[in-house]
Amino acid sequence: MNKPKFAIEAKQLEKTYKASGKLPAKQALKGIDLQIPAGSIFGLLGPNGAGKSTFINILSGLVTKTGGSASIWGMDIDARPREARSAIGVVPQEINMDPFFTPMEAMELQAGFYGVPKSQRRTEQILDAVGLLDKKDAYVRQLSGGMKRRLMVAKAMVHAPPVVILDEPTAGVDVELRRSLWEYVGELNKAGTTIILTTHYLEEAEELCDEIAIINHGEVIASEPTPQLLKRLDHRSLIIYPKDPLQVVPPALSGVDASIRPDGALAITFRSSETGIGRLIETVREANISIEDLETEDPDLEDVFVEMTKA
């Protein structure tokens, strides 16, 4: 399978759910244009109800689009539906497996669904990669929540898809499991697999993703390389460490956006385009605060996300 420029490409993708009973019609996707580079780790973020799940479900064939087009690994989902969906593996948010199957049986069944010949199956290799080889013959109902989550990832990999979508994969799992899961995802990506991640852990997306798209009210409101997205906010924080820790913001600083941190440091949020650091330092000194040290902080992804989706 030749590597295309984009793992996923959507053009004017729309979805309107028809009115049902007392529920009115709802336009879940409003002409989305999105290009996800092949080989990247791409973050897909947005508030609940923004349209992320609808977008994923259209790609995986669970929801029929209303308009526009979408392709997976260069294959249109309408013109070549079977091939397009064979190029994608989806790890859903909900854990849904037969509790009386073993991981081995669940994996073999999934491989059969995708028509993977027995000679080409890598069931034990994949289970080993996600740390479940020693549980291959246990019933799924005997596995912990974290193990079930890892088995979901393993099932998505049975047909070696070039694109994997992880929908909130670390929701409700402990820190150690989250770390091991991301190590495995990192190895997949290094081997060439494109990873698409939805998560509510914004620090996770900031650390892992090469690019991030933010969806809100069915529209893509940003899609940029992560460092570029973080520069979208025109505000920074100046952290002043005084010789004597402060308890309250001095009245002389009532004209700036200032707060006291637990360690007694003074944090001043300012817009780079409007206020220079030199002027802020001068204002602090005029308030009779002796400065021992200072530093600046740039906005993180959570700041950008809240700012862009608050409307």
From TrEMBL:
Superkingdom as given in the UniProt entry: Bacteria
GO molecular function, one term: ATP binding
ABC transporter domain mapped to chain residues: 8-242
Keyword vocabulary terms for this entry: ATP-binding, Nucleotide-binding, Transport
Pfam families: ABC_tran (PF00005)
The protein's name: ABC transporter ATP-binding protein
Organism: Ponticaulis profundi
